[in-house]
Design brief:
Layout (H helix, E strand, L loop, with lengths): L6 H15 L12 E3 L13 H19 L3 E3 L3 E2 L4 H10 L3 H18 L10 E2 L3 H16 L3 E11 L4 E3 L4 E2 L2 E2 L7 E10 L5 H8 L7 H11 L1 E10 L2 H7 L4 E6 L10 E4 L4 H7 L3 H12 L4 H6 L4 E9 L6 E7 L10 E4 L5 H9 L8 E2 L21 E2 L10 H14 L3 E7 L4 E2 L1 E2 L9 E4 L3 E4 L26 H4 E3 L6 E4 L3 E2 L1 H4 L3 H6 L19 E3 L5 E4 L5 E4 L1
Parallel strand pairs: 1-2, 3-4, 12-14
Antiparallel strand pairs: 5-6, 5-9, 7-8, 9-19, 10-11, 10-18, 12-15, 13-14, 16-17, 20-25, 21-22, 21-24, 23-24, 26-27, 27-28
Helix pairs in contact: 3-4, 6-7, 9-10
The structure holds ligand ANZ and zinc ion (ZN).
Length: 557
């Protein structure tokens, strides 16, 4: 026995032996129950860190254990290789992101190999390779055909000096990280994936998850955020009708219709049409609306920032009492949620309470708290009472518990045509457009006469030029004539390529399928499960259907 462990000698010998025998290359037709050990693939940041080592060691221990148990194991590895850090590094060093990325991959692969992990390197992939992202584009076009991918305007952070869109992390204290200019919110056309169409399915699927901590499931459920509530119309009062030259109503979404008689004001988002109409004739309000629009686009920031608002001078009518209610613009109302407007009930909603206290707006208790502690009508107020209870000060609806009161009030509103129950999800459609260079090009061509034309499948992949060096002043694709110039697939006229690239989460949302079906020249296929598993892929070698979560064969193509 050797006295000393000499890692260089021993490990290199073992590793070259494994390599010679292809010991870790998964053979789909080999005997043994299949086991797919999938670790999240790394971002090629430059060097492995201890987090990588820990993570991939755990996967490797599991893989080796399973092999010893006689399982046929697939343990693949790849690179989540697009994204902003490569552009930032390129700017700092003047190197194209492609070179920086591939150098990092080579280095980190060497590090992973020296760890002796039992990885099947024959299935290695990098999301920045055209062979890989071709299928991103193909998937996008299929979703476009089905109406799952679509184009509409969305709000972005705009740096007015660099004339460029900034990622949220590039906005520091409301200013562009490079120019220091005050960042504006701008509406530009972007591509979205209609994930909200799957909100119910996603939520239901949480119940089928096994072995996940309750905390994680709760976080997912909150993210999807299913709220049952009522859309309530507050008809415009005479002043609003006069300003807009027509009649109409302000629609709000509320989960607490039982508090309707506690409304003392309504509040709209700065981008709401009513705010814009009122601001047109009110310089101070216009200034405030601008200030709100300059602020962060991040919901977390909106939730924690100091509540601010301003009266519009306009009024709406309470849908049941007919009372006039003032309309405020408030920075805590999000344009992107519900109707972009709230009925404010300071006695029972924390945010409204804070706002009303600040602007000395009245408070009206309509839910009695069990202790009576919150039921005072006069200042000093202690806090909002946000729990459920029994209705008071609510006319004919008095004495109901909150749940019954929601139903009764919703029914009364529906009878007047001023309210409808509905479900609202917090989940938003996924904006996948990035005004960035180092990502997968969105396969669309803009033609002056045909409009937005999908790139035909035969022309895929739309290749990203790899020689551009971003300098921070916008997307270099938009200045690359070689990339931009193309022919319209429909009419043959000169046309321009879309310069937006895809969010890198598109790349990393399907790589697990590619590993299990690693021939990048062909698409994988998914069929209805026969094994009770969710995902099936075809093996190129044997045309067998495999469940990619357990690698169990489940029939033939
Ligand atoms: C009146 C009310 C009284 C409310 C009360 C709550 C408590 P979830 O559960 O997240 O769906 N809201 C609606 N649209 C909003 C928007 N665009 N921006 C900010 N807040 C908005 O929250 C629903 C509640 O959030 C709604 O119910 C509304 O306030 C507010 F005692 O209406 B509520
Ligand atoms: Zn055309």
């Amino acid at each position: 026995m050797q006295e000393r462990y000499d890692p260089v000698a021993i490990e290199q010998a073992a590793q070259s032996d494994w390599e010679a025998q292809q010991a870790h290359v998964a053979d789909e037709s080999a005997p043994g129950e299949k086991f797919y050990c999938l670790s999240m693939f790394p971002y090629p940041s430059g060097r492995l860190h201890m987090g990588h080592v820990r993570n991939y060691t755990i996967g490797d221990v599991l893989s080796r254990f399973m092999r010893m148990q006689g399982r046929n194991v697939l343990q693949p590895m790849g690179w989540d290789a697009f994204g902003l850090p490569a552009e930032n590094a390129a700017m700092a060093n003047g190197v194209p992101p492609a070179r920086w990325t591939r150098d990092n991959i080579a280095y980190m692969k060497g590090q992973l190999k020296s760890l002796g992990l039992s990885i099947d390197w024959s299935r290695e992939l990098a999301t920045c390779d055209p062979e890989y992202y071709r299928w991103n584009q193909w998937l996008f076009l299929r979703m476009l055909e089905k109406g799952i991918a679509y184009r509409r305007t969305g709000v972005v952070n705009w740096d007015p000096v660099d004339q460029t869109v900034l990622a949220n992390e590039q906005v520091i204290d409301g200013r562009g990280w490079r120019t220091g200019a005050l960042v504006e919110k701008r509406e530009i056309p972007m591509y979205y994936l209609r994930i909200t169409a799957y909100a119910d399915a996603l939520r239901d699927a949480l119940d089928t998850l096994q072995g996940w901590p309750e905390r994680v499931r709760a976080m997912q459920a909150n993210w999807i955020g299913r709220s049952e509530g009522v859309d309530i119309d507050f008809p415009w009062a005479d002043d609003t009708v006069a300003l807009l030259g027509k009649s109409g109503a302000l629609r709000v979404f509320t989960t607490r219709a039982d508090t309707l008689f506690g409304v003392t004001y309504v509040a709209v988002a700065a981008e709401h049409p009513l705010a814009l109409a009122a601001a047109a004739g009110n310089a101070a309000l216009a200034e405030f609306v601008d200030e709100c629009r300059r602020g962060s686009t991040m919901e977390a920031d909106l939730a924690t920032q100091e509540k601010k608002g301003m009266a519009t001078g306009l009024h709406v009518c309470h849908p049941l009492s007919g009372e006039q209610v003032p309309v405020y613009v408030a920075n805590y109302v999000l344009m992107g949620y519900g109707e972009g407007a709230v009925m404010a009930v300071p006695a029972h909603d924390e945010r409204d309470f804070e706002f009303a206290a600040k602007y000395s707006l009245p408070l009206r208790t309509v839910i009695a708290s069990p202790s009576g502690a919150y039921d005072q009508v006069q200042a000093p107020w202690i806090d909002a009472f946000g729990e459920h209870g029994t209705t008071v000060n609510s006319g004919q609806f008095n004495g109901l518990d909150s749940v019954a009161a929601v139903d009764a009030i919703a029914a009364a509103l529906a009878a007047k045509g001023l309210g409808d129950k509905r479900v609202q999800f917090r989940l938003r459609d996924w904006g996948i457009s990035r005004q960035r260079y180092w990502g997968c090009p969105i396969p669309i061509i803009h033609c002056a006469s045909c409009g937005d034309v999908p790139v035909p499948d035969e022309q895929l992949p739309v290749r990203l030029p790899e020689d551009l060096v971003p300098d921070g002043s916008g997307n270099p694709l938009a200045r690359s004539e070689a990339f931009l110039a193309c022919k319209c697939p429909r009419c043959g006229a000169d046309a321009r390529r879309e310069t937006d690239t895809m969010d890198t989460f598109v790349d990393s949302s399907w790589y697990f399928l590619r590993f299990a079906c690693a021939d990048q020249a062909r698409r994988w296929s998914m069929v209805a499960p026969t094994t009770g598993c969710r995902w099936i892929t075809t093996s190129v070698v044997s045309s067998t259907l495999f469940c990619i979560c357990c690698m169990r064969a489940s029939g033939r193509v």
